[in-house]
């Protein structure tokens, strides 16, 4: 027992450093770019011309219908066969961005569609253009509804970044694998890595609860003023 505790204490700085330098930046960048891609895709599916709608649907269908690990392998190991070489981190960033973009687009599309048509009519009645109505009226209301599912997506992404170890990104889980290769103590080190992911997820879950409560109060104020 004492040996395991010592091993955990010695390996903790390396695991935390890998999480700080690779896991957290990969998560934040992937979610940010994926959210932008999801918004564009959702708007394209709802309001775009037929050819654009077809392309957007095809993208969502492919990404949602294939495993994330396979997508990462195609980008990192498959693309070099046609002359496209990517380092591990950019390959992982592209893979996670495409994945988050597809899933978040469905969330965003659903919440935009849930906004009553009367909100559009009210915006147009006071002289707003489509863009103004979308940015000032529709998206703020849709965003409040989208917070819980998008927060869940973000928390899942934190854990999914462990798949980047399969394409040699030196993030938290691969750091644990490297230590295991020298210490031959897989049980305790993988448990330690799992605990770090658990702590991160727990912190984010608490932040999600606070964010939902704040948006709920904001929504209540809007309804009261209405």
Could you explain how this protein is built, in words?
The chain is mainly alpha-helical and 226 residues long. The chain has a single domain (2-225), classed as Orthogonal Bundle (MetI-like fold), CATH 1.10.3720.10. It has helices spanning 2-47, 50-64, 68-78, 88-114, 117-125, 130-160, 172-183, 186-225. Helix 4 (88-114) crosses helix 6 and helix 5 (117-125) crosses helix 6 (130-160). The longest helix has 46 residues, at 2-47. Mean pLDDT is 92; it is low at 222-226.
Quick overview of this protein structure:
The protein is an all-alpha fold. It has helices spanning about 1-45, 50-65, 70-80, 90-115, 115-125, 130-160, 170-185, 185-225.
Profile the largest sheet: none
Basic shape: flat
What name does CATH use for the topology? MetI-like fold
Helix run count: 8
CATH superfamily: MetI-like
The second-level CATH architecture is Orthogonal Bundle
Which percent range fits the helix content?
over 70%
- Structural domain count: 1
**β-sheet strand percentage:** under 5%
The low-confidence runs, each spanning 5 or more residues with pLDDT under 50, are: 222-226
Domain ABC transmembrane type-1: 20-208
Keywords: Amino-acid transport, Cell membrane, Membrane, Transmembrane, Transmembrane helix, Transport
Subcellular location: Cell inner membrane; Cell membrane
Protein name: Amino acid ABC transporter permease
How is this fold's topology laid out?
Layout: H1 2-47, H2 50-64, H3 68-78, H4 88-114, H5 117-125, H6 130-160, H7 172-183, H8 186-225
Which features does this protein show?
about 230 residues; mainly alpha; MetI-like fold; flat
């Amino acid at each position: 027992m004492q040996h395991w505790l010592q091993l955990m204490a010695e390996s903790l700085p390396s695991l935390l450093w890998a999480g700080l330098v690779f896991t957290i930046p990969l998560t934040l960048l992937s979610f940010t770019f994926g959210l932008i891609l999801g918004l564009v895709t959702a708007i394209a599916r709802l309001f775009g011309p037929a050819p654009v709608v077809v392309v957007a649907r095809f993208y969502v269908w492919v990404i949602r219908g294939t495993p994330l690990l396979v997508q990462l392998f195609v980008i990192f190991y498959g693309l070099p066969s046609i002359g496209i070489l990517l380092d591990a981190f950019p390959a992982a960033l592209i893979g996670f961005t495409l994945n988050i973009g597809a899933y978040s687009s469905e969330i965003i599309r659903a919440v935009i569609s849930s906004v009553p048509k009367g909100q559009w009519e009210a915006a147009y009645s006071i002289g707003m253009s489509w863009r103004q109505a979308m940015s000032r009226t529709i998206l703020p209301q849709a965003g409040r509804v989208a917070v819980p599912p998008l927060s869940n997506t973000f928390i899942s992404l934190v854990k999914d970044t462990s798949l980047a170890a399969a394409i040699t990104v030196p993030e938290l889980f691969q750091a644990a694998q490297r230590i295991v290769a020298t210490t031959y103590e897989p049980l305790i080190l993988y448990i330690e890595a799992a605990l770090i992911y658990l702590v991160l997820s727990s912190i984010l879950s608490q932040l999600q609860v606070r964010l939902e409560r704040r948006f709920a109060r904001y929504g209540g104020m809007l309804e009261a003023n209405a």
